[in-house]
Amino acid sequence: MRRAAPAHPLADRTILLVDDDPANIQHVREGLAGPGYRFREAHDGTEALRSLRESRPDLIVMDVEMPRLGGVEVCRIIKANSGEGGFGFIPIILVTARQAAGKVEGLELGADDYLVKPFDMMELSARVKSMLRLKVLQDALVEKNRELDFKNRELDRANKELAQKREELLNLTRIDALTGLYNRRYFEERLNEEFARSSRYRSPLSLVMMDIDHFKRLNDTYGHPFGDEVLRSVAKAVRGRLREVDFVARYGGEELIALLPETGTKEALGACERIREAIASVRLEHRTADGTRQEVRCTASLGVASVPDRTLLATEDLLREADTCLYAAKAAGRNCVRQYRDGAPE
């Protein structure tokens, strides 16, 4: 059995032949018929551009001198729109009866090759094969670049997703599950950072400790699930009265703590009063087993200390004195604020 001859490596490549003389087109078609190329025809520059928009040929063999729109002008248009959003790379062989002057002009406008009539068909065939090989290589390069761009975009997307997941996992280790505030461990990290920054630049920093008044009584009276609801509502009220730059955490049990950067004693006292009023305005509803509804309100006591202060030289000093002021607020009857100033709560 005879084996079929292998297909020519450039078979099925499309060549657009552009010439106002049908006999010239037929002559070129017959001379290039062997490898199995596909041919399209156009009889002037306008037809060539129309054909180009309908389908992208792999090569254009075009006469320079044609009515209406000549080959050089068509070449200029094609090469000016050779980007990926336009025609892309299409090699062009210009053919003319003129001599060197036209050749220079055509090559300067981006023609990839130039033949002068009458030309040898074997020479044209060799140049066509050379241009088509160039087109194959260029197409492969474009495809590789597209694949690389796609992979890079996918890698970028995967990296962003990974970074987001890492941030989410990191936040899980920083967040108190009940209140949605930061937890004590992360608060202490931030406190050390903010205190160091305050010390370095002598910028004000205030720390607020707050405790829900009679929280144990609320738990004992209404149950722990209701106590959890109290904590969530108070946390929301506190967060709503502070700035985005302020840092609020659950410090333990019913105790919350807030760090207020760039906030001195006067501003800190005002912030504490806003927090106290917000907590006092919280309205909660408790339903008893028989369906009776009861409104429950709560208050909080707050203690605040600020730096720079000549007696507060470390984070432990700031925490201690804010805590001392908190207990002073409770001793003063609760639902009030006490501030550390001049070495003592006031």
UniProtKB/TrEMBL annotation:
The modification 4-aspartylphosphate is found at residue 63. One of its GO terms (molecular function) is diguanylate cyclase activity. It catalyses: 2 GTP = 3',3'-c-di-GMP + 2 diphosphate. It comes from Melittangium boletus DSM 14713. This is diguanylate cyclase. Residues 203-342 form the GGDEF domain. GO terms for cellular component: plasma membrane. Keywords: Coiled coil, Phosphoprotein. SMART domains: GGDEF, REC. Residues 14-132 form the Response regulatory domain. Its EC number is 2.7.7.65. GO terms for biological process: cell adhesion involved in single-species biofilm formation; negative regulation of bacterial-type flagellum-dependent cell motility; phosphorelay signal transduction system. Residues 134-175 form a coiled coil. InterPro entries: CheY-like_superfamily, Diguanylate_Cyclase, GGDEF_dom, Nucleotide_cyclase, Rev_trsase/Diguanyl_cyclase, Sig_transdc_resp-reg_receiver.
